[in-house]
Amino acid sequence: MSSFFSRIVSSGAPRLRLMSLAGACAIALALTSFGPRPAAAQEEAASSDVEYAVPSDLAAESLLLDATYAGDRLVAVGEFGHVVLSDDRGVTFHQAKTVPTQSTLTGVTFVNKDLGFAVGHDATVIRTTDSGETWELVYNDSESEMAFMTVYFENEKRGFAMGAFSFIVETNDGGETWEERSLSDGLLDDYHLNKLFSDKDGDLFVSAEFGVVYHSTDKGRTFNRIQTQYEGSFWGGFGMSDGSVMVFGMRGNAFRSYDKGQTWEKVDTGTDKSIAGGVQLGSGKIVLVGLQGYVGYSDNGGKSFTEVTRSDRLGYAAVTDGPDGQIVVFGEPGAKVMPDDMEKAREAVGAKITAQADSDS
Question: What is the model's pTM?
């Protein structure tokens, strides 16, 4: 994975290095002024010079950065354009048949069991209409060297891809055409937009840099900026069944809002390791994952977490429900199944601590 973590250019390293495993973590960007060209990007997507992801038996054991369910099928994406699929909730995976990119894929979403979109480096957007088996390139701007980090669709027609330096494109025809846009008129921020997600009511939130969260009450047509009490980067977030939202990121910092982002309270994550992904399981339990093997479990609705450090000490970027009584975590070593119960997880994959015997001297 050394090449993945080193794909950062010196002029932007202070900001980008801190994102080394979040959603679109290591970004190969030239941090000069950029001017994405939607029409050119769509023409490039339709060109015959597309490079396809190479078939590999190890695709599910290489870096995976995001995952979601398409109906009953689990779909995960990662480096080299890898897309892997599981029809047994993460026990086994097979690689997608056709993926028209070798860029690192950082985000994936499905509108229904068939229609899905994934995004990544080189301003790449790909689309599937057959549950992830085959994909087509619908947007690409490799010349800009921009990176999308997150993708969200309101319905089959309208969706967004967002990423570095507030680079956003929107489609209103299911990905056939895309237009570049800003978060809102007059909002000139250039923060990295790391995760776009909705709450229970359909309000949209974006986890961003410097303790900023963006909030939309009109399905993403406009956003307002919220400055939280934290000054570091938020790498992810999600909405919970009680209507609240949680955002999380560097150094184990996580904050929760019960009032649409008007106020935020700090969450005890039980760690100082950076957190990149999280989910509320079907059982109601909440699990966070992050760097250095961090897996945090909450049985009290996300008010606090207990850390289980995986013995591999590797970085993890996403987590989903798995087979009965288990979860699937995704990151540097690919997809790994582990118990959804904290004590069982400690026994199965937790870091082993061996007490030293007292010396006789």
Answer: 0.87
